[in-house]
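queue> holo job accepted (uracil)
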Amino acid sequence: MDNVTIFTHPLIQHKISTLRMVETGTKQFRELVEEIATLMGYEVFRDLPLEELDIETPICKTKAPFIAGKKLAIVPILRAGLGMVNGICNLVPSAKIGHIGLYRDPETHEPHEYYCKLPDSMDQREAIVVDPMLATGGSAEAAITFIKNRGCKSIKFLCIIAAPDGVERLHKAHPDVHIYCGHLDDHLNENCYIVPGLGDAGDRIFGTK
Ligand code: PRP
Ligand code: URA
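queue> job finished
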């Protein structure tokens, strides 16, 4: 499938394996989600445009490449996406941050919106939507539809673990959106949880149940 990147980097794989473990506690879980987001972000921002600016080193005047001030919006899907925000902002500290609140109906597994606040001028920004889990794909599909409705034309989606169903649904609904997955898992269970997965990402990040 074009427009889908599945990461294979050993550091990312090692950290995701630790994340999955039932004995990994809240503190370590949060730290790992942030670290994985930073490592994945390194690849996601590979195509940021550069511009040559004049600088002076202790040796001489020269031209040097700098990020060309592209307008970025990081958009976590609440709640679990919040865990990835600092990891991405470590790389692009001046990015604006939007929030989309969605929860999955426990019966239908379809997303319900409860909050949406996005930065201004979304039509001039590149949006990086972050959520650790892409299960059925309903939440990501809905979040990206909100963002497109605000005029945004350049969107990437970043998740740590994806199920094949979610990748397929999201790609079908938004084929223009590049999907980045830390790991592609096997399937969804009868409750639409990812198998083997890591359980409920929001509960594990925030220590709720
Ligand atoms: C989880 C997860 C995604 C969604 C993925 O959120 O963080 O947003 O489920 O499932 P989907 O691909 O089938 O839509 P959840 O609804 O549990 O809310 P939470 O983050 O507040 O716990
Ligand atoms: N949401 C989660 O947090 N985990 C899953 O496995 C599926 C949806």
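queue> The longest helix spans residues 26-44.
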